[in-house]
Every structure is written in C-alpha cells, then in structure tokens.
Design goal:
alpha/beta; 434 Repressor (Amino-terminal Domain); six-stranded mixed β-sheet; six-stranded parallel β-sheet; Rossmann fold; 355 residues
Amino acid sequence: MPLTIRDVAKRAMVSVGSVSNVLNNRDSVKPSVRAKVEKAIEDLGYHPNRRAQLLARKPNPVLSFVLSNRELYDPFHSRILEGVSKYCEDSGFFVLFSKLHYAASETVGRLQLPAAVRTNGMSECVLLAGVNYPNLIEALEQQNIPHILFANNLVSPAPMGVSDQVLFDDVAAARNATRYLIELGHEAIWYIGDTALPWFERRYQGYLAAMREAKLKPRAQTAAISDDRFVNGFRWASSIVKAKQPLTAIFAATDEVAYGCWECLQQLSIGVPDQVSLIGFDDQRGPYKGLGLTTVRVEAETIGIEMAKMAIEKIRSTEKQQPQVVVPTVLMKRGTCQPPPDNPGRVPVSPRDAR
C-alpha cells in the first residue's frame, strides 16, 4: 500500500492537519512541529500527493514547462511553449519555465530536477518537451510527480506506454509525403536524414513503407556528416549528384536538411522543381522567398495546447492517467514539387558541376 499523510502524522506523532500545513508551507507551523514532520517524511520516504496539495492551495495554480537537452532558441519547442502559455492563460494557470540538461546514462537517484519541479507544492504538473530519456520519467514517477510528455522526442530502447503523452505520427506523415511524390510520377525518390535519431528513423520507415507499397527501389542517405543539418543536406545532395545517381525527388527528414539540399542544387544549376522535386518536414521558415517549400506541417502550438489541456485535466480528474493525444499533421503543397522531367531517373550534371 502507498504511504499516506496519515502514516506521516502517526510517525511524527502530530495531527494530519499539522502534516498538511507543513506540506503546504503554512507560516503558522511551529518550528518544532515542522522538524518532526520533515524527519518523518524523510524516514518513511514519503512523496506527497500533488493533486491533494492543489486543493489546499490559493488561486492561480502552476504548471512547470521543462525544456530538456535543447537550446532556448529552438523554434519548434518555442512554439510548443507558446501553445502551453496561451492555454494556461485562458485557464487561469501560471507557467514556470525551466531548462534541464542530463544524460541518458545518469542514474535516477543522481538526476538533479529543476527547483520548480522538485519543490513540494510549487507546481501541480510537469510538461516535458525537448529530448528526454526514460531515467527522467522514472525519477518523476518515483516521486509521484504528475507529468505530461511530448513523446516524439523520447529516446527509449523500448516503448513506455501510451498514457499522459501528446505526439504526432511521424511514420504516417512521412508515408503520405512520399506517396504524394509517387502520385506525381516520381520513382527515383531519395530519403535524406540521420536515422541515428529515432524521430528521423520513424520518418525513414514511413518513406520505406510508401516505396515498398509502390514496388519502388528505396534510396537513402542516412548517416550524419555534420552536426549542422543544413550542411548535411547540402553534402548529401552533392554526393548523390556527384555519383550520378538516379534522382528526380528528395524527401528530407526536416526543413533544415531540405534547405541544405536546395542550396546545393541551386549552386549546381539544377532546377527545383523543374528537375528535382523537394519535400521537407516541420514547416519552418526558410531562406528562400517566393517559391515555398512543400513540407509536412507539424502544429507545434497545438501540441502545446493539448499538453496543457491534458495536464489540467489530470490535476482535476480522479483518473491517474490520461489517454494519449495524437495531433494531426498536414502536407503543405507549395512550389517545390511537380511531375518529373521527360527523362526521369537522372539529373544531367556536367563534370564541372559535380563537386
């Protein structure tokens, strides 16, 4: 049986109300009583029920948004935070922002959680964005800290269930994008993306499914050359052209890779989409004005809204776990795709340009 506030009260030889006052940081608690309760909590290894604490708090409860292993200026996760903030403002909740850098190899007991997360009663639920690992999830669960996960960027060797998480379907989105190129008449379609990253691996699996469904030969560059995705796209595209590989279309794992490919093709005087069609993923703003990149739009702000909505429902509900929410994606058909040229399969490139 899980420990309760009554067990703490019995151990400290004080009333249940006194324990509640300590857990909620009431100023009226005598130092001697606080010391007894804190020692009992430590001796028992008790972790308070955050949902119960909420009922005793004053108005304007708080959610903690934790950005793990990502920089503040990451555009995708910034849009998730915008969605969280918008929904919380409309719902009367405050949002505390924290950054967290940790390794997958860090033991659960040594993980240093942000103050907004580890301080009892400060926040009712934690929203996890960025790149996360199972050890953080385990640490939160051990301390009975409610949390909602953006699941696409969870790096885990095994599935971790489908509750308390919001995500979009990488595989289906990639499959639909590749099908669009096939429907236009393309056959020599390349996937470009670093499959060492699980989200790019899932997109590769979606690409493979569409190619196999159409009985077409898969073609891919999947090993990272650089930490810079734009550079990866540029070099990967250059290597394909230099090797005179069949090529009429590219499905890039992310817009940054797509823009790198586009820059390379432009420098080689290869027309997009006249000679090579191009699709990206994420729908981020790029360097090219006028001709828009065909891409998979991921509604990051909607992901944030759904995370905040789920967290508030989790706080208010008697249900311990909330069902998974899948946010739909949209293929934005813009100016970088068209049917293949009359001589599909090879892009004419002079030896001078193949560098």
